Amino acid sequence: MNVTSLPARRASNRAVERYLLTATGLVGFVVLWYASVKWLPIDAFNRLPDPLSVVVEWTSPDPDYGISIFTADYYTHIFYSTYRALAAFFLAVILGVPLGIMMGWKKSVRSYASSLLGLLRPVPPLAWVPIAILMFPGVELAVIFVTFLVAFFATTMNTLVGVKAIPEDYFRAASCFGASDRDVLWDIVIPGAMPSIFTGLQIAMGAAWFSLAAGEMIAAQYGLGFIIWEAYNLIQYPTIVIGMATLGLVGYVSSSIVRWFGKRLMVWHEQKLGMAG
How would you write the chain as a 3-class SS string? Predict the structure, then answer.
């Protein structure tokens, strides 16, 4: 037996087990959903659409309520939501990562900004919608702003935690060797905080989709959040589930891309440190 193949075989077996558990969980959820709608004598469940009617509507070339994978409007809503979520996410990265680094690295910056962030962070996204509409001309910027806030707080706070977790001995050693602030930033602060930064980015991407749906329900004419709220007003229950499922799928894919990019970057960074060592 080839001993070197054992770790690869075990990793493959673990991957298969993980996929089987995921599939089992999804199938179990669908079965529970169907049973709750069809068999439980509870009015709250009986008003919901069953999985079969949702799939039929979702895949119909001529859907009863106008939204399916064969309609152009479906992809228009996905495009608008994706554009808003990505715009808010990248703004959160551009502003939140530097602020989190400075707050974790410099006590003076943390003293100035931590109280304000602590005050604003618990405010829910919906509470920002009226202020955003008053502040920005047009609906588009208002929805992006509401989405940006939640992603910004997640990015900033996780970056701050990552910087503060760096052992103080690293900074003392750099000071003893006469390292400049630029050297400390690029050789200690950013590499040391990188795992927490990418954890924050994954959370920020998920939070962006969460807050985006809330903003689109109140102040938008396109987007997945809009079609969910519009379907509720028009009593188009299968479309509500279609919008929710699409929101979850697109959000999962976008978070997976951030996770994949983070893992690749961390592998490259670890290899670079190993070569340097």
Answer: CCCCHHHHHHHHHHHHHHHHHHHHHHHHHHHHHHHHHHCCCCHHHHCCCCHHHHHHHHCCCCCCCCCCCCCHHHHHHHHHHHHHHHHHHHHHHHHHHHHHHHHHHCHHHHHHHHHHHHHHCCCCHHHHHHHHHHHCCCHHHHHHHHHHHHHHHHHHHHHHHHHHCCCHHHHHHHHHCCCCHHHHHHHHHHHHHHHHHHHHHHHHHHHHHHHHHHHHHHHCCCCHHHHHHHHHHCCCHHHHHHHHHHHHHHHHHHHHHHHHHHHHHHHHHHHHHHHHC
